[in-house]
Amino acid sequence: MSDLKPQKLIDELDQILDRERTALMEGDLGKLEGLLAKKEKVIGKLNSVSELERESLAQVQTKLSRNQQLLDSAMDGIRSVAARMAELRRIRKGLDVYDQAGRRNRYGTRSGAKLEKRA
Q: One biological process GO term for this chain (predicted)?
């Protein structure tokens, strides 16, 4: 590769992927939006360069795959939390029970009911 520009782009993408991994590992999902925009821009530039060597991209490809797995795991965690919160909201509204005949009965909770502690 005689032109240094593609290598500079690869190095820039490598640094962005390292920052993205750090943000994912620390749970700082707010940083991901800005990093995604930068990553897409650099990848777009790399796609327009025709003479890239495969060896130069191997390490970056590994990091891309690793970060995608981290992103998938983060999304799974967010989905789990959302499902759990929805379940808790449903439970707060009332309790569904079934009688011996299999009919469902709902017992509502009183909103605004407070527990009083006495010494």
A: bacterial-type flagellum assembly
Minimal CA–CA distance to 10: which of 42, 32, 41?
42
| Percent of the chain at pLDDT exceeding 70 | 87
The three-point CA angle 35-38-40 to 5° equals 105
What pLDDT does residue 64 have?
A: 92
Helix then strand then coil, % of the chain, to nearest 5: 70, 10, 20
Q: Minimal CA–CA distance to 59: which of 112, 100, 7? A: 7
Q: Report if residue 81 sits inside a domain.
A: yes
Stretch (H or E) spanning 42: helix 32-48
